[in-house]
Structures are given as C-alpha cells and as structure tokens.
Amino acid sequence: MHFPSFKEAIGAGSILIALIQYVPYSWLIYRGVIRPHAFSRLIWGLVAGIAFMAQFLEGGGAGSWATGVTSFACFIAMALSLRLGDRNITRGDWIALVFALSAIPLWRLTNEPLYSVLLVTLIDGAGYYPAARKAWNHPHHEMAYAFTLGWLKGVAALFALERYTITTTLYPAFLVFADGLFVAMLLIRRNQLKRISGPS
Questions:
Q1: 200 pLDDT above the threshold of 50
Q2: pTM of this prediction?
C-alpha cells in the first residue's frame, strides 16, 4: 500500500486550494457577480500549461500539480468571461495577447525547459496588465480572496517541489509575488474609492 510522501501531501493540498479558489470563482462569474477580463485568463491558461509541462519534464513532481490545475481552471474562467465577463477590450489588451501567443512558437524553437519558463513567466506578467487595468477602474469586479488563495497555492506548490531548479521554482515564485501584489492593489484601490465617495 502506497502512502503519500510529505511532498505529495503538500501537492495534494495545493490542488485542494486551487479547487477552493476556482470553483466558487467560476460560479460567481456564471452568476454575474464578478466580471473578470477574459484576455488575462486566456494568457494565464496558456502560460500555466507551458509552465506545467516544463516543470513536469524537469522533475518538479507534486509541485507541478497545482500549475496544471490552474491552467485548466483559467481556460474555464476564460470561456465564462467571454460570454459573461468584461468586453471592454483595449489595444493594450490585444498587444498583451499577441505577445503571449507569439511566444509559444519561440518556446518550441528553443526546445529548452528553462527558456520556456523564462518566456512564460515574462508573458504571465504581461497577462496581469488587462486584469490590473480593469481592477484599477473597477476593483470590486475582482475577488481579492481568489488571488489570496492563488498566493497560498503558490507557496504550497513551492514547498511541494521535488526538485529545486530555476526551471521548477521561477514560475510559482513569480505567482506568489504577482498575486500578493495584485491583492494589495485591489485593497488599496477599494480603500481609495471608499474615501473619495465618503460615508454613505
């Protein structure tokens, strides 16, 4: 009988966090409670899929599981957002998407997991642009708790890695940084708008 190792247990925990993060998040999109930007979810789904493959090939093991689940969940959120989410798509949003798509053949040409992770980390950062632009104007259209869980999921994924290299650690480490920064921006912006509007 196989008992999960410490790393596998943490990896399973990171998947559980991802499910707690994305199942209610997708339901809220469906109900129209939140209206995230579809382009960000598409970009994040693409790059998470590439990062998952790179981590898997480099022996990331259980630490790569959450990245794979995140990719799948981002595509679901993207599909819901195209129908129910934000349709205010700017030129900058298109540039971010084209940048993301153009990097996929570059990744294939390099045929090197490290280069692919460097590329997708850079692209993932670009993917935050449409979400951050929209969240700055409408900070209540995003759920701070979802990005907080994303931060926690990234921390768990880092601890679950079975092999620590730049290839396996760069992407989840970036997500920990970016999600934490995004949550801080949301809370600060909500507080700013609350002060401007004054007491109700």
A1: no
A2: 0.69
